C-alpha cells in the first residue's frame, strides 16, 4: 500500500513540477524529506514488531501506524505550505 501511495505521490509531484516555483518546490521537498524520515522510522518499528509477540507486537505495530499517519500529515502540510508559497508569489 505504501508503494502505491508513494508512486501516486511521486507522479503528482512530477505533474505539478512544471508549474511550481523553485521556492514552492523547496518547501514541499523539505516536508517530503521529513515525511520520508518518519516513514523510515515506521518501517524500522514494523521490522522490530516482527521479532516480538503478543501485546508487545501489537504495541509496536500501533506505533508504526501512528508514525505512518504522522508522515501522511507531514506530506499534507507540505502541500499546503507549498500552495501558500505559490499564492504569495502569484500576488
UniProtKB/TrEMBL annotation:
PROSITE patterns: PROKAR_LIPOPROTEIN (PS51257). Keywords: Signal. Residues 67-91 have a biased composition (Basic and acidic residues). Residues 1-17 form the signal peptide. Residues 53-91 are annotated as: Disordered. Residues 55-66 have a biased composition (Low complexity). The keyword Glycoprotein does not apply. The keyword Signal applies. This is Lipoprotein.
